[in-house]
Specification:
Length: 287
C-alpha cells in the first residue's frame, strides 16, 4: 500500500502546527504505560504536537518515562488515581487549542472517570479516536454518538471483539462469526468509523467504505499494541486525512510494523515498544 502524498511530503516552510496538536486523555495510577505508548506512537507517526491529559498524581512519575517531546496537562483525579469528572472544565478549555482528541488508553473504569468520558464525547466538538476504557464508558450509552451537542465528524471507535460484544450486548462468538456485517451496520447506524480489531482487522464507515487488513501477526496480541494503533490513527487524523483513510493507513502500517518487528524479535518475544520502533521503516516501505 502506498501512502498518500499528504503524509509523505512536507512544504519547506512547514511548522509543527501544520501537523496537528493531539490531546490524549489517558492513563491512571495502574495503567500509566498505556498513555506513554500512545504518545510515542503518535509522535512517531508524524504528529506536530502531543499533550497527555493525565491524573495530576501521575505527572511527576510520567515526566521521567514519557517521550521528551510530549507535553503533559495534569488534571483533577479521583481517590483511585483516575481522571475525575471535575476535570471536565479544564479539558474543555484546553480543547480550544487542539486539533484531535484521543480518549481511552489506560483510563480505568472508575464511575467518575466514565462519566467524564461520556461528557467529553457528548459536548466537545473535535474529531476523536475512542479506544479501550473510552469504549467501556459508551457501553449502554451508544445514543451519545447520535445525540452529541455538536456534529462530531471523524469519530473513530477501535474495539477488539470483546469490546465490540460489550457495546452491542452480545457474545464475542457472535461478533467473530459476523465481523464484516456487524462492523458495517454499526458504522452506518452511529455514523462513525468502526475499526474492529483482530485477525484481518476491519475498517468500515457510514458511507459504505470497507477495508479488510492483511498485515500483522499473532505476536501483536500483546499489552499496549492497541494503544500504539490508537496513537497512529490520531496522528494521521491530525495531518489532515479523513477518518476512514486515517484508520485504514494506521491499521495497515501498524500491522506492517508488527511484521517487521516479528522478523527481528520473533512473535513470542515482541512487545508493543518493538512495534513503535518499526513505524519509521514501515512508513519508508510505503513511500
Amino acid at each position: 500500500m502506498r501512502l498518500p502524498q499528504q503524509l509523505l511530503r512536507r512544504r519547506p516552510d512547514a511548522h509543527k502546527g501544520d501537523f496537528g496538536h493531539i490531546f490524549i486523555l489517558a492513563g491512571c495510577e495502574r495503567f500509566s504505560g498505556a498513555a506513554v505508548l500512545c504518545a510515542q506512537a503518535t509522535l512517531r507517526s508524524g504528529a506536530g504536537l502531543v499533550t497527555l491529559g493525565i491524573p495530576k498524581g501521575l505527572n511527576n512519575a510520567l515526566i521521567k518515562i514519557k517521550p521528551k517531546e510530549a507535553m503533559t496537562l495534569p488534571l483533577e483525579q479521583t481517590k483511585e488515581g483516575t481522571l475525575s469528572l471535575v476535570a471536565y472544565k479544564k479539558i474543555k478549555n484546553f480543547c480550544k487549542d487542539i486539533d484531535i482528541l484521543v480518549i481511552g488508553p489506560g483510563l480505568g473504569r472508575n464511575k467518575s472517570t466514565q462519566s467524564l468520558v461520556r461528557k467529553v464525547i457528548a459536548k466537545i466538538n473535535k474529531s476523536m479516536v475512542i479506544d479501550a476504557d473510552g469504549l467501556f464508558a459508551l457501553a449502554g450509552h451508544l445514543n451519545l454518538l447520535r445525540h452529541t451537542q455538536y456534529a462530531i465528524r471523524n469519530t473513530i471507535l477501535t474495539p477488539h471483539p470483546g469490546e465490540m460484544a460489550k457495546l452491542l450486548g452480545t457474545s464475542i462468538d457472535k461478533v467473530q462469526k459476523n465481523r464484516k456485517e456487524i462492523a458495517c451496520k454499526f458504522a452506518k447506524e452511529y455514523k462513525v468509523i468502526l475499526v474492529l480489531k483482530g485477525h484481518n482487522t476491519i475498517v468500515a464507515d457510514d458511507k459504505g467504505n470497507l477495508y479488510i487488513n492483511k498485515t500483522g501477526n499473532p505476536g501483536m496480541a500483546t499489552a499496549g499494541s492497541g494503544d500504539v494503533l490508537t496513537g497512529m490513527m490520531g496522528a494521521f487524523l491530525a495531518q489532515g486525512l479523513d477518518g476512514f483513510s486515517a484508520a485504514r493507513y494506521a491499521v495497515y502500517l501498524h500491522g506492517l510494523a508488527g511484521d517487521l518487528a516479528a522478523k527481528e524479535k520473533t512473535q513470542i518475544s515482541m512487545i508493543a515498544s518493538d512495534i513503535i520502533e518499526k513505524i519509521p521503516e514501515a512508513i519508508k516501505r510505503c513511500s
